[in-house]
Amino acid sequence: MEEYTVEMALKEGDVALLSDDVLTSVAHATGFLLQGEEVEKLAVLYQVPQFLRHCPEDTLTIMVPRICVEVVDWSEAVQAAAAEALYPVVGTKITSLVAKQVCMASLAIINASPPGEVFDSWGEILSLILNQVEKQDVVDLVVPAVITRAAEGHVGSRRLAARLLGSLSD
């Protein structure tokens, strides 16, 4: 079986070798997200836009939900890469279930992260997905988070609350 090298800039010299079936199968790639080393997870996340382009249904029904469940347990570097991988997803018309999963993952990361790159990236994902989340889910899940963030003393938290309010008004 032919192998492709996917180079990641996690650390100088890190290289992930992913076989052809991993790079062409959403199910196999998702397995690496669940059980792979950090550099393998990063390599798969780097490929999410290609999976979305070539296998949109599998990407949205298999990979994205697993990212949403697993992301809270990943390192900050992988969480940041996951947010970047989801940018094309939130720009695509997706089901309300997948939108809710992305919303819930975003809220979980935001609640667990101090202000910084990961917090900001997932706040952006949340603000971009809100227009695809059902209204009642927004009321139940997002509005309480906005109120909490608006009341916090940190500027980044208040800025996120303002951005989310702006997204809600659209």
TrEMBL record:
Protein's organism: Compsopogon caeruleus
Q: Which InterPro entries match?
A: ARM-type_fold
Please name the taxonomic classification of the source.
Eukaryota, Rhodophyta, Compsopogonophyceae, Compsopogonales, Compsopogonaceae
Q: What is this protein's record name?
A: HEAT repeat-containing protein 1
